[in-house]
Write a structure and sequence with these properties.
It is built from 31 helices and 29 strands. It has about 900 residues and is α/β, with parallel strands linked by helices. The strands form ten sheets. It has a four-stranded antiparallel beta sheet. Strands 10-11-9-12 form a four-stranded mixed beta sheet, covered by helices on one side. A four-stranded mixed beta sheet has the order 27-26-29-28, sandwiched between helices.
Length: about 900
């Protein structure tokens, strides 16, 4: 089947643009609910609608694209459902910044006008990331794109609220919350980031009212809150204070008597054991206050400034300035004992990046349903986490889970569907109307001012995007077909924000009464690592170490970026980004392009539509050891990639692909087969082997490098013009073996091992020559080899002379003595210990051999530890264990030979 001419050089930009449009035109990414096929569904972690692509997106979305493209190749009905998040607080914060530059304020604008302004800003700046994901090659069904503020999705969010409220899980109450003074909204515990801060610990003293001149010493990091102190607490078993039951102390300012109380929250072993109690500004203090019925005095307002209850001199003062002034005043009063440097963790608002304030506030809370079922889902493997160690983190969080503050004091988002009778008490449930469709009488009701936490919308993502809760007949069929989804790819930083909550939501809302496997939102969760720079630092604009993926694609192509990123992304580990890896990906594209072009230059392709068709072109009489070796490696690689996908070992897959194509196929097979291409009787057979390798390799590589593989698939004529590569199954090693057997070809294991020995000899000989600037020179080689090794050398002498660049290969009766003769260098190969006549620097040789021995010692130590580990020997297949033992024995023998060569240098 003829293809199209392959250009001299690979122009990635042209190929990418042309094929992506062709895919869109062909509706290649459309998810079709076909009952005759197995479903495979992924929902994209929705990026912020106004976000731009960064390296974390590249890693995450490349993995998702690889999974869904592989699923299409396997004949599954595949859907990658895209969407964007309205990012309530983050987006509102950005718009408010822009408004302030214009001298505008959202409160003066009013809610409706402000909301419309955010819509305009979103529509102007939003959607950029969608175009960037397309540039990366992401094969989402873009016609299904969902935005979290779309009417249908918004109805799902509000429906979930009403159901949970009616079920008694959602309630309104005044509680201590995390408050962001910058954004002036409540935050959930997960939105608070602890950061180590260097500050001061203030040691002060409060005078005992009943014992003038006697004091209780107290240490605090926040003297600016002492004006809200309503007690001093000590432990009931602390003997130092037993005599002070019923006593009081003087609060310094505003001066007032406050009681000494006895409570187990005070730590008798820390410092003086006394604790200032400020119920309005500390969670522990609030709980103490509730137990002892203490008054609550709020001295810091919603903006982080002190109010009139703190005293006239502090009114309107910023909390951090007030800290210094309060310390100075204590010093003036003789009540500051000392101030010392102190480092502690302070909670920061994730979005505004300012220290949060514990604050009493009227908010909406969710008591999580289905907690025990959510634990069971992961503990029993209904939902599988990869890597598995995240199971423990997830379960620990659920064990300690607290009610979720779901209300936010923002306008951009889903407004809470609760209406109150005008003028009535909002805390009285009889005065509320909770409904998706609004109040029964618009004239006498007013809606709650708050909006829902953004995560209280995205936790419904796996089924809210598929039409829940009121799908029409078609949507109902789609929801039933695609749910639960198969894989979720996300970062571990949102395991609590999103992953755990989605599991809980799926169990609560989907298919009540059915099995857990039908209700969970996804079957597998793959947690990526964090992308860092090569020094291990987290990427940030401040450090200037965050590369622009678009610039990288301009320079190296999308396929180069994808392959380079995946090659360094091992499961469970952070990714140390190095642009060199992306360059490696681009070079791999060029290598593939050149190999395909070389194949095309040898003559037209014939029938290559299947493995069977190509195998039929093979001539069993002409199959040599190199054919056995490359076909054997192709079988291994087909199985390895299938195994890598099954185990989510994507960087291992890139290594296997690279090793087969660059090492086995290009560096060896194409080189050794060149002489056979000049023989017309053998040429057709050799080209069939090349076609078989290239065709199957393009299929294996397609999920990683979709653009270049599609281009070469058509360029080499490996399918009909209208056939996309995604519709062809790469098959398995077993199917290839069966096809070869049907042609009368049984892969010769001896030939495969023999060829590996030849390659080892050639590569090491070339390396020794290159290290000494002798790569272009043909030199004589002597080698001490066993009889079996000598027979292999004799059979392939001409090939070895040509590929190793040798004038002759002589058998030595004794092992060559590296260094005994200053004109020879010795090295160990799979065919024996060889020596090349090259001028030798003894000191340099000793260093080289010592380093090689040191590395080999480490390899042997690791192998010995592995084989002595019962966890490995009990679970690994017998052939794997035997292979490891054989490798260990070979390395131990090699170590003895290295020691001998080193001894000769002494």
């Amino acid at each position: 089947m003829s293809g199209t001419d392959i250009a001299k050089a690979y122009e990635s930009a042209q190929v990418e643009q042309r094929w992506y449009q062709a895919w869109l035109d062909a509706k290649a990414f459309a998810g079709v609910a076909n009952p005759a096929k197995r479903p495979f569904c992924i929902v994209i972690p929705p990026p912020n609608v106004t976000g731009v692509l960064h390296m974390g997106h590249v890693l995450n979305n490349t993995i998702q694209d690889m999974l869904v493209r592989r699923a299409r190749q396997e004949g599954k009905a595949a859907l990658w459902l895209p969407g964007t998040d309205h990012a309530g607080l983050a987006t509102q914060t950005q718009v408010e910044k822009d408004l302030r530059k214009q001298g505008l304020d959202r409160r003066k604008m009013g809610r409706e006008n402000f909301f419309q302004r955010v819509v305009e800003w979103r529509d102007k700046h939003g959607g950029i990331i969608i175009g960037q994901l397309k540039r990366l090659g992401c094969s989402c069904d873009w016609d299904r794109t969902v935005h979290t503020l779309d009417p249908a999705y918004s109805r799902a969010v509000l429906t979930a609220f009403v159901k949970l409220y009616d079920g008694g899980y959602i309630y309104r109450g005044k509680r201590m919350v995390n408050w962001c003074p910058a954004s002036q909204t409540a935050l959930s515990d997960e939105e608070v980031i602890p950061k180590a801060q260097k500050g001061s610990l203030y040691h002060m003293r409060y005078e005992i009212v009943e014992r003038p001149g006697e004091f209780i010493n107290i240490a605090t990091t926040r003297p600016e809150t002492l004006m809200g102190d309503t007690a001093v607490a000590v432990h009931p078993e602390d003997p130092r204070y037993a005599h002070l039951r019923g006593a009081h102390v003087w609060r310094p300012f505003p001066r007032a008597q406050i009681p000494i109380i006895f409570d187990t929250a005070a730590d008798k072993d820390f410092g003086s054991g006394a604790l200032k109690v400020t119920p309005a500004h500390d969670k522990v203090d609030f709980e103490i206050g509730q137990r002892h019925k203490l008054p609550i005095i709020e001295v810091i307002d919603a903006s982080g400034k002190l109010n009139e209850l703190a005293g006239e001199e502090f009114k309107g003062m910023d909390r951090f300035k007030a800290r210094k002034i309060a310390a100075e005043k204590l010093k003036e009063l003789g009540l500051l004992i000392k101030e010392e440097p102190y480092e502690n963790n302070v909670g920061f608002s994730e979005r505004a990046d300012v220290p949060i304030e514990p604050r009493l506030s009227e908010q909406w809370f969710l008591k999580y349903p289905r907690i025990e079922e959510a634990k069971t889902a992961v503990r029993e493997g209904h939902v599988k986490f990869r890597p598995e160690h995240w199971n423990k983190v997830y379960l620990n969080w659920l064990d300690k889970i607290q009610d979720w503050c779901i209300s936010r004091q923002v306008w951009w988002g889903h407004r809470i569907p609760v209406w109150y009778k005008k003028g009535a008490d909002h805390n009285d449930a009889k005065n509320r109307h909770v409904s998706v469709d609004g109040p029964p009488d618009p004239q006498n009701w007013e809606q709650d001012e708050d909006s829902l936490d953004t995560w209280a919308s995205s936790w419904l993502w796996p089924f809210g995007t598929l039409g829940w809760p009121v799908p029409d007949k078609k949507q109902a069929a789609e929801l039933d077909f695609w749910y639960p989804t198969n894989d979720l790819v996300t970062g571990p930083d949102i395991i609590f924000f999103w992953v755990a909550r989605m599991i809980i939501a799926g169990l609560e809302f989907m298919r009540p009464g059915e099995s857990m496997d039908r209700r969970i939102p996804f079957q597998n969760v793959y947690f990526t690592g964090i992308v860092r720079d090569k020094q291990g630092r987290k990427m940030s604009k401040t450090l200037g170490n965050s590369p622009d993926p678009i610039e990288l694609m301009d320079k190296y192509g999308a396929d180069g970026l994808r392959f380079g990123t995946m090659s360094s992304a091992s499961q469970g580990n952070d990714v140390l980004f190095d642009e060199t890896n992306v360059e490696l990906g681009r070079n791999f594209c060029n290598k593939l392009w050149n190999a395909a072009r070389f194949r095309q230059m040898q003559g037209p392709t014939e029938n290559n539509e299947s493995i069977a068709a190509i195998v039929a072109r093979l001539n069993p009489a002409q199959v040599d050891a190199d054919d056995h070796a490359i076909l054997g490696r192709l079988v291994e690689t087909l199985d390895a990639i299938a195994r890598d996908f099954a185990q989510y070992e994507f960087n291992t897959a890139t290594q296997n692909l690279y090793a087969f194509f660059w090492g086995d196929f290009c560096d060896w097979y194409l080189e050794v087969a060149k002489s056979r291409l000049t023989d017309e009787s053998a040429k057709g057979h050799v080209l069939a082997v090349q076609d078989l390798c290239l065709r199957q390799f393009l299929l294996l590589l397609h999920p990683f490098m979709p653009f270049i593989t599609e281009e070469l698939w058509h360029g080499l004529g490996y399918g009909p013009t209208t056939q996309l590569i995604q519709s062809v199954n790469p098959d398995t090693g077993a199917s290839l073996r069966a096809a070869l057997a049907g042609r009368g070809l049984q892969l010769d294991a001896t030939a495969i091992v023999e060829t590996a020995s030849l390659r080892d000899f050639v590569s090491k000989t070339r390396a020794v020559k290159a290290q000494r600037n002798q790569a272009a020179n043909r030199l004589p080689i002597s080698i001490q080899a066993s009889r079996e090794q000598q027979e292999i050398i004799q059979r392939h002498r001409d090939k070895l002379l040509r590929l190793a660049g040798a004038t002759e290969i002589n058998f030595a009766a004794e092992a060559p003595q590296s260094g005994a003769d200053i004109s020879a260098v010795s090295y160990i190969t799979a065919l024996g210990t060889a020596a090349i006549s090259i001028q030798v620097d003894k000191a340099a040789e000793k260093i080289r051999l010592s380093k090689e021995l040191e590395q080999l010692d480490k390899v042997i130590a690791n192998s010995e530890a592995k084989l002595s580990n019962e966890a490995f020997t009990a679970k690994a297949p017998a052939n794997v264990i035997e292979g490891a033992r054989k490798q260990l024995a070979e390395n131990q023998a090699k170590r003895e030979e290295l020691r001998r060569l080193l001894a000769a240098l002494q």
